[in-house]
Amino acid sequence: MKLGVPARLLELVETKPALLVSIVALVTATAAAAAPLSQPEHRITLATAVERAMEQADPPAEPAPMERVWDGADVDGDGRADFANPTGLEPREHDAYGAGQFGARRDGGSRRHEGVDYRAEAGQDVDAPISGYVTKIGYAYAGDQSLKFVEITNPALNYAARVFYLKPTVDVGDAVAIGRPIGKAHSLQRKYPGGMTDHVHLEIIDRRGARLDATRMIVAQYRPATTTLAAAE
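RE: above sequence
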C-alpha cells in the first residue's frame, strides 16, 4: 500500500535521515523561490513535490539475486539428504555424442542410458553422491585403464551408487560421507573428441539391482543467494 507524505517522511527519518534532509532542503528552496508557503495551495504543491522527490530518490529495491542449490531426497526420514549432486553442475544436455539424461538412446536405440551425466570441469572435485563404503573401483571400459569408476554401497539404505570418469582419491573399504570428495573429474576429450561435454556419469542402484533416474532424487531449487561476510581480523 502506498504511504502518504507524513508516513513516508517518518520512514525516511528512521531509515535515511541524511537523504530526507537533502530532499526537503532542495524542494523547500525551489518552492520558496516560486511562491510563499502561507498560501494553502502552495503548501499542497510543496507536499506533492516532496513526495515525487522521495519516489525518485528511493526507487524500489531490486529483487534479491537467486542461487541454485541441489536438494537430495531423504529416503530414511531423518531430515537429512541421502543423495547429492556429485559435481554441483547441471545434467549434460544434448551434444555431438547424444544426450545425458536417464534412458537416452544409445547405440542407435539398441540400449538405454542407465545413468545421468552431470557436467564437470576436468580436474574439479567429484563428491560422494551417497554415504557408505567404497565397495569397488574399476574401469569404465574394457581395455582402457584411463577412465575409472567408484562404487559406493550404503547397507543401511539399501542403495548403491557408481560414479564414472574420475581419478579416485579413495580406496576399496574406505568409509565415505555424502558430499565429500572421492576423486577428480577426468577429461573425456581424448576418448570422445569433437564435441563430448566433460561430465561424470552417475548410476543409482536400488536393492533389486535396478538403475534409477538420479534426477528424481537430486532436484535443483532456486533460493535467495546468501553472502558470507568475512570476520575482521
